[in-house]
Amino acid sequence: MKMGFMVYRFILMLFLLPQALLAEPFNAHKIPPQALESFYKAFHKIHPKGRIQKVTSLRGESIDHVFKISVLEDRPHTYFVRFLNRKNKNLNHEKIKITQAMAGIWHGPDVIIYAHDFKSFITDFIQGRHLSPSDLKDPVLFKNFVDKLKQSHEYLKTIDQDFFLTYCMGQRTLSRLSEIEDRSIILPNIEKASKVLIRLKDNQEPARQVVHNDVRPENIILDEKGVPHLIDWAEITIGNIFDDLGAFAEFFDLSPLSEESLIKQYFNKDASSANLALLKIHRWSNGLHRAAFKFRKYLDAIGDDKPTSWKDALNSDNQDLKKAASRLKSYLEKVDKVDFKRSLEKAGFSIHI
Question: What sign does the CA torsion over 128, 114, 66, 322 have?
Answer without folding.
Answer: positive
